[in-house]
Amino acid sequence: MELESISNWTGRSRRTALKGIGGLALGAVASGTAVAQEEDSRTDFTAELLPENAVPPDYEPASCDAEGVANFRLVEEEERVEYQLRLDGIEGVSGVHLHRGSSGENGPHVVDIHKGEPTGDTGEFFSLYARGEFLPDDFADDFDGSFADVVELIRDGETYLQVHRDDEGKEVVRGALK
Hints:
By secondary structure, the chain is of the alpha+beta class. It has helices at 14-32, 147-155; strands at 44-49, 60-61, 67-75, 80-88, 93-100, 109-119, 127-134, 159-164, 171-176.
């Protein structure tokens, strides 16, 4: 699976852009879900991506000022998950993966959203923006669960998104889906 678009964004304040995206995400959640809705029927999830969320010894915080947000929407009747990812202050992205595991622990891949050659520029204000979707056919080779299992993991707070920024994949920014 490849990222739908990766772009350089310059001349914008990272915090301003992230606040705008966060506001849009909150608006989508507020308009798409009722306040009294049961926890197990949520469809919208967000992860705040930061280097300090890396969990040693397997990984270390990316040595950059990266920060970002990822929004996920479950479309159960079609067995697909839509996502939007925005990261500022990062270059050389070598992988983006949805993992199984809770905050403070490392776990296996569920979906390989992007893997392969590092992408990016060496510009000071490099950003990554991607949006797309994944289906059961896109699950990682070693994940033997169903779409319903992925939905349950996400709703139970047992998934996180991890973005790798070096060739070895050790430097990361990470955030739990909530």
